[in-house]
Amino acid sequence: MSGSQSYIINRDRREIVGSEVISRQYVRDLTEEDVEELVSVGDIRVFVNWGRDALEEIEGDRVRVFWERELMGHVGVGEDAHVSDFERGCFFFAEYWKGEDERNLLVLYYHH
Questions:
Q1: What is the H or E stretch that residue 64 is in?
Q2: Strands 104-111 vs 44-49: parallel, antiparallel or unpaired
Q3: Could you tell me if residue 76 is inside a domain?
Q4: Which has the closest alpha carbon to 56: 110, 102, 97?
Q5: 51 partner at 20 to 30 Å CA-CA among 7, 16, 104, 111?
Q6: H/E stretch holding 41
Q7: How many domains does the chain have?
């Protein structure tokens, strides 16, 4: 998790907020292939909602490791995704946001 900075999504205002707004632009839901492409490109900020209000940021080299150990094979798409569809009984929904600084933001929602 990144230092002491925490982030939340303000759904009413469609913003990702920390000490300042880092995004006001939700783009779309993602497939596993989309997530893999974003991770392989690199310049990305990754946030995970583990079922709490705050988002945990996965930083630097941890992004690739997180992809390989947690995400690969565990990205759900659409309302029909269910934990029983996934080997470990858990999965992530993925959203693509564009940052105020134009960086790609990946927001993941953990379900178990």
A1: helix 62-66
A2: parallel
A3: yes
A4: 110
A5: 104
A6: helix 32-41
A7: 1
* Residue among 42, 40, 37, 44 at smallest CA distance from 22: 44
Instruction: Look at residue 2 and tell me if it is in a domain.
Output: no
Give the residue carrying structure tokens 């992530």. Answer: 92
Query: pLDDT tens for residues 69-93?
Result: 999 999 999 888 999 999 899 999 9
Answer yes or no: are the C-beta atoms of 106 and 45 closer than 8 Å: yes
Query: What residue has token string 């790609």?
Result: 104
Structural domain including 17 reads 8-111
H-run or E-run covering 98: strand 91-98
Q: How far apart are CA 26 and CA 96, in angstroms?
A: 6
Name the pairing type of β-strands 75-76 and 21-23: unpaired
Residue 89, helix vs strand vs coil: coil
CB 55 within 8 A of CB 23: no
What is the tens place of the pLDDT at every residue in 14-57?
999 999 999 999 999 999 999 999 999 888 999 999 988 899 99
Q: Is residue 21 part of a domain?
A: yes
Q: Looking at the domain assignment, is residue 84 inside a domain?
A: yes
